[in-house]
Amino acid sequence: MKTISRSATRQIAALQQQLTACRVFTLENYFHGKPVDPAFAWKALAANRSARLTDNENGTYTVSVHSNCWYEMRAS
Fold first, then answer.
1. Which of 49, 39, 44 is nearest to 69 (CA)?
2. Confidence (pLDDT) at 36
3. What is the pTM of this model?
């Protein structure tokens, strides 16, 4: 897993165009993954200073907000 820096704005902008499928994993949905609009993941990354964007190196990316909330995104 490779963390993508928040200052990599060009890379993040390209990912926002490519990654169109998103699932959210939270305690509320028992970590089963609920399909959501990727805009929620990008908003969470921008709004939370502790949130991280990581490349899972298998075609998926994760926005980790905290231990009980994360988003997994991929190209559809």
1. 44
2. 98
3. 0.94
